[in-house]
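worker-3 :: picked Trifunctional purine biosynthetic protein adenosine-3
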Amino acid sequence: MDSISSSSSSSSGIDEVTKEKAAQVIHAGTKMAGDTLVTSGGRVLAVVVTDKALGQAAARATQLAGRIAFEGATFRKDIASRAITTNPLRFRGLTYKDSGVDIDAGNEFVACIKKVVAGTSVPGVMGGLGSFGGLFDLRDTGFKDPILVSGTDGVGTKLKVAQTAGIHDTIGQDLVAMCVNDVLVHGARPLFFLDYYSTGRLEGKVAVEVVKGVAKACSMAGCALIGGCWRETERDT
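worker-3 :: tokens ->
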């Protein structure tokens, strides 16, 4: 909304602005003198615009206010500026990418690993990658009254070695090996594996190499990679 002040005079441009979509002119100090709209001075008009984003509404209201002309007319150009400056993302719309998640990069990453993941399939695997959950039918294993043993682990500081060497597939193999060992000590057989990949910024080439290592180790252990999750935790803007 922009308010327009004036000394006493006749006004023009109001009808045109009123016809604009999602715009309204509010009168406070005007009257008709015959066929002419005149103002009484002071703050006499306000231009109001509605929009999904505050910044766009404010900019358009200012632009439309400038189209109303009469002698001595002045109008404010700073209305809503403080709110927009304080929290710009709120008023221009927040996207996944703004918050640190590149959906396009994630989809490209998943497309690159689908074939590798599918190559680890074993009897019992149901569905495919990207279904927000891994399905496994225990009846296909041939076990009678099976008991599931679950475990989880992380690569820890060995990640620094992989980063320094620039070799990332072996870190994926190491991750699977530690989890498989934890299951084996219970006398159990590894059936399936789910990974969790967290990074500040998703670098597709590195992520694919890590998952290739995970898939290779799963194949060596005779278990299937049936799903996982990638997460971007921080992004420079």
